[in-house]
Design goal:
five-stranded parallel beta sheet, Gyrase A, domain 2, Isoleucyl-tRNA Synthetase, Domain 1
Length: 592
């Protein structure tokens, strides 16, 4: 039971003893504001109809009853209609002992809910970039947080492996590749294919320019550029399962998947299932027919199928082209239905950039109009762009911030800064490599995840590796510092695992309070799909411990019982930091 629930229970008991039955909604508990004395505050205004007394009189009466009947409440004070309760140190000692003994601290009991979360969703015509990094880290972290909340989580990836953009890379490779492969070039497969996507764009622009100079309008030139017409013809052949085109498509996509897997492994993300658009793009056609039969959709003269959402404040939305081919919405309708039915989902979360906000608004609405009530359980976890100090990215022009390059740069920056600060002194080369990888990736992940997903963010690599600010390396270093304390305690034979919790200093009570909030923080992060809540908690806990460590001796404390307790407290802080950071997908080092 968390402390807030405990306070609510004893408050309810006293109120009922004084005034009779009370509804749960009338019990309002909050943390006492820092400028007032106390730990938790009961708001008495909702209770005045029961007490028939002034707010101050009601608060005083309830406070006196609580203190008289609960040894864990050491005192109270009243500020207007707010009853501030102070909790006795013995309560915090008991709570701390319970927490240390709880191997699953911070993890909720099984909820029985099954939640699918889709993230990554790359195209197979280019490598993963900085935007994908935010997507992957956000999706993976939310999945870990939902698991900690007791849910059964299915992590999925929908790979966009078909369409005109894929054919552009394929055609450029055919025309200009000279048989180049990842093996012959030494390039990762996704980088090689991305190279030819940029190559296509270069030749396309040159052809468009030439046609314009020959007297065409820009729109005509863009439609009639020979290389674009050839790409469109290749797409038609692919849809007709032309043997040569299909074989090339499989080969080049295979190169990309091998490259993606290397990047996913480096990022520390994974999936339980991978869907491919080439296998799902035909899904949804039967749903479109169902919508026509029900009169939810309508057909235009060109045979295309639409839904009119103007009465819902939106516009008309295309669901099937006149030639019978699918659009993204057709596919997403079918995929959503099959996923909910096959996996008996309770919730479906899509981690997709905010440029798709309208798409998911329409998706939910269309499914609702088709009669699928579970559409209310679709959630679009929308996130903003990530920019570097240099500015925005454009994949067609090859100016994207490549994920692999950024990961390598982060590890190298971590090495440079760690060396500058002497963090790697005494490490073997193997240990130094492991620490630099951990710190570089930890810096990247924490810097991205500490920001509310909805916000566009500026990512500054050097700022993210500051060992003193609100960064991943600061928290990682705090963990390593505690591990050093624990090693020295073990060497000195200090039996801190069986410590007795005696008199606690105010600073120790504050740390224990912070530790006790971890399950509530995990719950809040899960309810709001918000890794930033976990990040803020981990930073505050690390900062509080560092303040405590600065002001109070641990290993040099003369009283053996106090020394044991302080080492135990440090060990628990390290355990909770480790668990919090794991929810962000971040590893913490033992040495640094």
């Amino acid at each position: 039971m968390n402390t807030e629930t405990f306070i609510a229970q004893i408050a309810t008991s006293s109120i009922e003893a004084l005034y009779g039955a009370v509804e749960a909604s009338q019990i309002q508990i909050q943390k006492t504001r820092k400028e007032f004395e106390g730990d938790y505050t009961l708001v008495t205004f909702p209770l005045l109809k029961l007490s028939r007394k002034s707010p101050e009189a009601t608060a005083n009466e309830i406070g006196e009853h609580i203190v008289a009947n609960n040894p864990h409440i050491s005192g109270f004070n009243v500020i207007k209609g707010f009853l501030n309760l102070s909790i006795a140190p013995a309560y915090w000692a008991d709570r701390f002992s319970e927490e240390v003994a709880n191997d699953s601290f911070g993890e909720a009991a099984p909820s029985g809910r099954t939640i699918m979360i889709e993230y990554s969703s790359p195209n197979t015509n280019k490598p993963l970039h900085l935007g994908h990094i935010r997507n992957n880290l956000l999706g993976y972290s939310v999945a870990q947080i939902l698991k900690a909340n007791g849910h059964n989580v299915i992590k999925v990836n929908l790979v966009n492996d078909r369409g005109i953009h894929i054919c552009k890379s394929m055609l450029a490779w055919q025309l200009y590749g000279g048989g180049e492969t990842p093996a012959s070039s030494g390039m990762k497969g996704d980088h090689l294919v991305g190279k030819y996507y940029v190559e296509f764009d270069k030749h396309y622009k040159a052809e468009v320019k030439e046609l314009i100079e020959g007297g065409m309008t820009e729109d005509e030139a863009k439609k009639k550029a020979p290389i674009m017409l050839a790409a469109q013809e290749m797409l038609r052949k692919w849809e007709a399962k032309d043997e040569e085109v299909y074989s090339l498509w499989q080969t080049m996509n295979g190169w990309v998947y091998e490259g993606f897997d290397v990047t996913y492994k480096a990022l520390g993300v994974d999936f339980d299932k991978v869907y491919y658009e080439s296998q799902t793009y035909l899904l949804g056609k039967s749903l479109v027919q169902d919508g026509l039969d029900k009169g939810v959709f309508f057909r235009k003269e060109d045979n295309s199928v639409w839904i009119d959402l103007e009465s819902d404040g939106l516009d008309q939305k295309l669901l099937l082209r006149g030639d019978g081919t699918s659009v993204y919405m057709t596919q997403d309708l079918g995929t959503a239905l099959s996923r909910f039915e096959e996996n008996k989902l309770d919730d479906m979360i899509y981690v997709v950039g905010n440029e798709q906000n309208y798409h998911f608004q329409v998706l939910k609405l269309v499914l609702k109009k088709l009669g699928y009530e579970w559409s209310d359980n679709i959630y679009h976890l929308s996130y903003g762009m990530v920019e570097l100090p240099e500015g925005k990215m454009k994949s067609r022009e090859g100016t994207v911030v490549d994920a692999d390059d950024l990961i390598a740069d982060m590890v190298e920056t971590a090495r440079d800064m760690s060396n500058e600060l002497g963090k790697l002194d005494g490490c073997t080369e193997e240990e130094a490599n492991a620490v630099c990888t951990m710190v570089g990736l930890g810096a990247l992940k924490y810097f991205i995840l500490k920001v509310d997903p909805k916000k566009t963010m500026l990512f500054d690599p050097r700022e993210s590796i500051d060992f003193n600010g609100n960064t991943g390396p600061f928290i990682q270093y705090t963990h390593a510092r505690i591990c050093s304390i624990l090693r020295k305690a073990d060497e000195a034979g200090i039996d801190y695992k069986n410590a007795t919790i005696g008199n606690l200093l105010p600073a120790e009570i504050e740390l224990i309070k912070s530790l006790g909030e971890f399950p509530t923080v995990v719950k809040s992060a899960g309810e709001n799909f918000a890794p930033s809540v976990i990040a803020a908690y981990a930073y505050d806990l690390a900062k509080s411990f560092n303040g405590y460590y600065h002001d109070h001796s641990i290993l040099r404390e003369e009283n053996a019982e106090v020394r044991q307790m302080r080492v135990m407290l440090a060990a628990e802080v390290a355990r909770v930091i480790n668990r919090a950071m794991k929810l962000l997908g971040i590893d913490v080092p033992q040495r640094m």
